[in-house]
Each structure stands twice: as structure tokens, then as C-alpha cells.
Write a structure and sequence with these properties.
There is one protein chain. This protein is an alpha+beta fold. It has 2 domains: 27-176, NADH:ubiquinone oxidoreductase Nqo5 subunit (Beta Polymerase, domain 2), CATH 3.30.460.80; 178-209, no CATH class. It is 14% helix and 18% strand. The protein has helices spanning 27-34, 57-66, 137-148, and strands at residues 39-42, 48-51, 74-82, 99-107, 112-120, 181-182, 185-186. It has a 5-stranded mixed sheet with strand order 1-2-5-4-3, with helices on one face. A two-stranded antiparallel sheet has the order 6-7. Strand 4 (99-107) and strand 5 form a beta hairpin.
């Protein structure tokens, strides 16, 4: 029988999928121990999350996906937020004008959730793609690119997904200037309300209103 002492195993070292530690590992704690520049925070409604530098998002997401005691195998959602006019930004949680990406992760194996956030300045909004970690991220990232103008270097097909290809600007940015028209259609910004419905050319007569009690 060998008398050699067992060697310590680094938790980040990939192991067989059917091997796990006897003591449950807290995902946030494991990430904080592995990545010194990641910090833990709690939202106003007491939801914990980890703030990840943009340059590390691929390394961190690969770590939580492959760590045998975390196995964050599902990217449930990836959303954007512009803090330009957000009241919480004034409390110092984020720089006032940053854009924030939120990654909601889930482990089917361990039935646990983990939230990651990345903040970037609006003047240099760029976050490496995580499509190599979760392919579904491709659609989420396209939406954020389209509506917030965040670039995702390495994305295999980064283009608009909701707005037309020739649309100017990114509509969910708080400093977005709404156009007065598009494709010959007049756009009114007053609460998105149209008294008589949109019409194609202001020089043409407005459409007649349906007669009272008539067919719609």
C-alpha cells in the first residue's frame, strides 16, 4: 500500500463531472478567492452580485461554468442598463454615466443562481463576448449592441436584431435623441401618442377617423 500523502487539489482544476466535494462550495466565494479584482456587492433590494472587470468576463464565466462545484451551465439572461439618469447611481454604486451588463446564471446540477455584472464607460462601451462559453449569449449580446451600443469583440455575428440596419443611434440609452421620422413616416415623441395615428407624409391629408359605431 502506498504511504504517499494525497496532494491538495486546486478547485479551479477541471475534474470529472461526477466528482464533487463533500462540502458545498459557495459560488461567489470561489470566484472571489480565484479572482482578486472581482468584488461582491448587494443591490438595494438585497440581491447579491459580483462585479467583474470587463477584461476578465470570459475567464470568470469559464471558471463558473467548468468548476465542478459550481457548474453554472445556463445563461438565463443577459441584459443592459444605462445609469445616466438612474437614482441608484448617485449613491456611488456605479459611476453616474456607466453602462452595466448583468449576467444571470443558473446551475442545473446544483440548483443555484449566480449574478455577475460588468460596468463600462459609455464612451468606450466594450465587453468581450461570452458566446464561446454559452452560445445563447449571441442573441443577448446582439440586443444590447442594438439598443445600448455596447461592442462585443469576438462575437461571430454582431449586428442589429430589433432595429433596422440603417437605424441611427441606440434607443435605450438615456441620452438618445429620438428621430423625427424614419422611412417617410413621421415619428412623434410626445408619450408615443398619435392623435390620429402615424401618417406617411405631413403634406398629405391625415387619414379619416372611423365613423362612430362603424367597423374598426
Amino acid at each position: 500500500m502506498s504511504t504517499e500523502e494525497p496532494r491538495a487539489v486546486d478547485p479551479a482544476t477541471p475534474r470529472p463531472r461526477d466528482v464533487a466535494t463533500a462540502v458545498p462550495v459557495d459560488p461567489a466565494t470561489a470566484v472571489l478567492e480565484r479572482f482578486a479584482s472581482v468584488t461582491a456587492h448587494v443591490t438595494d433590494n438585497r440581491q447579491p452580485y459580483l462585479l467583474v472587470p470587463a477584461a476578465l468576463i470570459v475567464d470568470v464565466t469559464r471558471f463558473v461554468r467548468d468548476h465542478v462545484d459550481i457548474r453554472a451551465d445556463a445563461l438565463m439572461s443577459l441584459s443592459g442598463l444605462d445609469l445616466l439618469k438612474w437614482p441608484g447611481a448617485k449613491k456611488g454604486e456605479f459611476p453616474f454615466s456607466d453602462l452595466v451588463m448583468t449576467y444571470h446564471l443558473f446551475s442545473y446540477r446544483h440548483a443555484r443562481r449566480l449574478t455577475l455584472k460588468v460596468q463600462v464607460p459609455r464612451t468606450a462601451a466594450s465587453v468581450p463576448t461570452v458566446t464561446a462559453i454559452w452560445p445563447v449569449a449571441g442573441q443577448f449580446e446582439r440586443e444590447i449592441f442594438d439598443l445600448y451600443g455596447v461592442d462585443f469583440p469576438g462575437h461571430p455575428d454582431l449586428r442589429r436584431i430589433m432595429m433596422p440596419d440603417d437605424w441611427v443611434g441606440h434607443p435605450l440609452r438615456k441620452d438618445y435623441a429620438y428621430p423625427t421620422g424614419y422611412g417617410g413616416v413621421v415619428l412623434k415623441r410626445d408619450g408615443q401618442h398619435f392623435d390620429d395615428g402615424p401618417y406617411a407624409d405631413p403634406a398629405l391629408p391625415k387619414p379619416a377617423k372611423p365613423a362612430a359605431g362603424g367597423a374598426a
